[in-house]
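With this grant's support, we have settled on a layout for protein records. An illustrative entry appears below exactly as we store it:
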Amino acid sequence: MPPAAAPVIAKWIDYFQCEFKISRSRATKLGDYRHPFKQSGHKISVNNNLNRYAFLVTTVHEFAHLLTWNDHKNKVKPHGGEWKHNFKRMMTPFLDQQVFPEDLQLAINTYLSNPSASSCTDLKLSRALKKYDGAIDHSRLEELPEHAIFTIKDGRRFKKGEQLRKRFRCECLDNGNIYLFSPLAEVVLSATGT
């Protein structure tokens, strides 16, 4: 995470007596919060493959869950108004310290007007965060031309189709099935191109 943010996060870990774990990369989530259960306390995990800014945003997201649990237990929706209020409040010190680059600070401020369950679902914020990823050997689907042939992590090959509202309709060349992909899906352009 950005060095200026570390003391605040360290205080939160200590104050809330939270077990904070940096996890291996998970395909389905960037972070996770587990409320106290039996003898265990609060647990937060954040994926190790995130860039420093995505790591911080995800960490704040999970701490907002912790604070919401402390205030309301399981009587409110996980990403309801109470969580949104806590997330905005917990982002404030980092925005005040300007730990984010200017373009990212703007994207976060826009996102904070109505934060969603995941920063990944907000395309503007997700694009802004991805700019700070290290060297990559893949493209985002939205960057490829229509009809381009691409592969995904599991090796399946697809042909990019039209965009339907937010997602792209793509045909799997291995089985003929149609799948919908996020514009930000990480893919590898096939050597054959289009």
